[in-house]
Amino acid sequence: xxxxxxxxxxxxxxxxxxxxxxxxxxxxxxxxxxxxxxxxxxxxxxxxxxxxxxxxxxxxxxxxxxxxxxxxxxxxxxxxxxxxxxxxxxxxxxxxxxxxxxxxxxxxxxxxxxxxxxxxxxxxxxxxxxxxxxxxxxxxxxxxxxxxxxxxxxxxxxxxxxxxxxxxxxxxxxxxxxxxxxxxxxxxxxxxxxxxxxxxxxxxxxxxxxxxxxxxxxxxxxxxxxxxxxxxxxxxxxxxxxx
Length: 243
Prior knowledge:
- The protein has 243 residues and is an alpha/beta fold.
- The chain has a single domain, classed as Aldehyde Dehydrogenase, Chain A, domain 2.
- It has six helices and eleven strands.
- The strands form three sheets. It has a seven-stranded mixed β-sheet with strand order 4-5-6-3-2-8-9, sandwiched between helices.
- The radius of gyration is 20 Å and the shape is globular.
- It starts with 10 loop residues before the first strand and ends in a 24-residue tail after the last strand.
């Protein structure tokens, strides 16, 4: 773009979107929405929740419920309306996902469910859940762009600490928070360095709402009135009025 007329560009790049789940959330909804945040379109989703931070007091129950939900998912033909989880888009990508999970295990993360290719024809990756993912490891940093749920605990009440961990990424595309405390939700929303923050929901976008990332997730906006700016040029005209 720079070589030819220095074209103006808007970039929507990758993400490692954090999803923070507090103990005072609607747990049934949080479990359901978290599964959608990670496994929608078999994880091939730019705003997928790349890492979940779950408050310690509900971690075990949240994990148990998530596993139950994942076990219900029907894997199969994406043209079948009853299918929940289709194939990955390319064999090379499937192989990288399997390698991603293998590296995670070597780094000390706990594989709770999945982690390998489904034993059937096609490019199917098992919906996968990891816990005990340490900050700074490959899994905590690199986007999988696949059906891999990565869960980390945070201490009850440590809002500042979990915000700092959520922001400790080169990306800033999307994020989410689940809590019934609107003040807590707004504190997180104000503090998270991401272009989109979902509160008690996820993956819910609207044509009127600007969409775009911060940091290495790109710049510029799709959707909303701000998207029009990407197609406009601003001109300043200065006139000395002295007749």
